[in-house]
Amino acid sequence: MFKPLLKSLKTRVFEATCILFFGKALPEKAFVKKYDNLKNMATKP
Fold this sequence. Notes:
This protein is mainly alpha-helical. The chain has one domain (2-43). The protein has helices spanning 3-22, 25-43. The longest helix is centred in the N-terminal third of the chain and has 20 residues, at 3-22. The radius of gyration is 19 Å and the shape is rod-shaped.
């Protein structure tokens, strides 16, 4: 009865941990990559 609940709780905790650890790093990296792509497009004729 409690196993699915425990599993979903573990998944939630894992997701929250991932967001805490990577939440700050991932958007910055994605933004930098996007910005680099835009810069490359702008400089290339």
